[in-house]
Design a protein that fits this description.
Order of helices and strands: HHEHEEEEEEHHEH
CATH superfamily: NAC domain
Helix content: 10-25%
Number of strands: 8
CATH class: Mainly Beta
Mean pLDDT: 75
Structural class: alpha+beta
Distance between the termini: 15 Å
Largest sheet: 8 strands, mixed
Number of domains: 1
Low-confidence stretches: 172-214
């Protein structure tokens, strides 16, 4: 899908999680995949190699990599870049513990968003200059759809990441999401117990993603 001249692709947090839900359950559509690509964000490519030239940011589906000694735990490998003699790979350093994201009506928990900062002393010009936002579905969401969509078993460890170059005036959490922050739990979602509320919401509540092109 081509974005009209003068427009930009800027989905809300809950839109990003809707797309991830559709992908995990095997229901993503071609137009969505033209704007969000599958890529190994925690592989050999540096962030500036992942974001297309001339673009300020890019969205990627990627599979989390558990560390060898913690296959049953929650520790994830977040190194990035090629291992070369005399040069260490970079690392995505966590900036927060994650922010809960509700649906557009504030009724129930969809997932979470975590912030990371690129750190690499071997790349002085790039060190601390890139941001990563990692979106992932809640465990309640995954459990609810696992029986209905068998493909979830092989896609449950996928997350959706947004990578962007840090602006000069950015602080630790420049989300560029002034509007969508209004529906997160931290900003006063209408239901104080969204993890339970999702149980009463039928699975088909998510339809194919309707983008907001602004």
């Amino acid at each position: 899908m081509e974005i009209p001249l003068g427009a930009r692709f800027q989905p809300f947090d809950y839109d990003v999680l809707k797309f991830l839900f559709n992908f995990v359950t095997g229901r993503s559509c071609v137009d969505d995949e033209a704007l969000i690509h599958q890529e190994d964000v925690f592989g050999e490519k540096e962030p500036w190699e992942l974001v297309p030239s001339g673009k300020k940011m890019a969205y990627f589906l990627t599979r989390l990599k558990k560390k060898a000694k913690s296959m049953k735990g929650s520790r994830v490998q977040r190194t990035v870049g090629r291992k070369m003699k005399g040069k260490k790979p970079g690392t995505w350093h966590g900036q927060d513990i994650g922010k809960a994201v509700a649906d557009e009506h504030g009724r129930f928990l969809m997932g979470y968003k975590r912030s990371f900062l690129y750190k690499n002393k071997s790349e002085a010009e790039q060190d601390g200059k890139w941001l990563l936002k990692e979106f992932y579905l809640s465990e309640t969401m995954i459990r609810r759809v696992r029986a209905e969509f068998p493909i979830v078993e092989e896609r449950a460890d996928f997350v959706l990441c947004r990578i962007e170059r840090k602006k000069k005036d950015d602080d630790e959490d420049d989300d560029n999401d002034e509007e969508d922050d209004e529906i997160t739990l931290e900003q006063g979602g209408t239901n104080n117990n969204l993890s339970e509320a999702i149980v009463s919401v039928p699975v088909p509540w998510i339809h194919y993603w309707h983008r907001r092109i602004t």
